Amino acid sequence: MIIFDNSVLSAFTRLKLLPFLEKLLKSAFISKEILNEYSLQWQETIPNWIKISQSDETIILKDIPLSLSPADLSIIRLALKYDFPIASDDSSLRTYAEKLGISITGSLGLLKSLYQKKIIETRDKYIAILNSLMEDVYISDELIKWALKD
Amino acid sequence: MTEKISIKLPVDLIELTGLSFERLEEKSLLIWVLELYSEGKITLSKAANLVQMKVDDFLSEFQKRHLKRVGGPKTLQEAQKDFDTIQSLTKEH
Description:
The structure holds 2 protein chains of 2 kinds.
Chain A: E1 3-4, H1 6-14, H2 18-25, E2 28-31, H3 32-36, H4 40-43, E3 50-53, H5 70-82, E4 86-87, H6 91-99, E5 104-105, H7 107-116, H8 123-133, H9 141-148
Parallel strand pairs in A: 1-4, 2-3, 4-5
Helix pairs in contact in A: 7-8
Chain B: H1 12-17, H2 21-38, H3 44-50, H4 55-64, H5 76-90
Helix pairs in contact in B: 2-3, 3-4
């Protein structure tokens, strides 16, 4: 099981790859707080394999960076409670989660997994998706080479 | 509620943009927040919170300006670790 933050959820929605992620992951979580940050129209597009969970406010977090929101903290609490990894492309969330011992992944790792498991069927399609991801995220040449390596 | 500060802007901006004081204040804040988000200094959620927008509306503002953001793994080691997390999660599938 895995928990999505806003950045990964939004990226895969934009790339129209949520059905691909379902094939890879079977199910995933977001928090109620994450869901509530989207418009109602957008909320209706969330597929039912992505479950909504209430975070546990009794989990006390220390040294919280100003760069994080209450919704970010809600998924940190979910990850700590259930020992699930978080999928995020937000640097400050990734750093804070790692400091707390939470496993992390992101859009690039998910895309490479989709390609290696042949859920993204062709290399051309994979390259087109990487290009689309790069329309709003900086990805270094070194990381692109890594992503394309079999 | 976040504590507020005041900043000064050239009065010419009112005429040049055609915006009211209130809209100019909102737009200035949005530009700052878009920059912070683009630099990877705040999360998407924090950015949307700061400008009191829904996340999907904030992303529309970001994308319509053709901006790019810093995010995801920074090094090969970090990228490999991200990939390994998925591999261990999906190995039983």
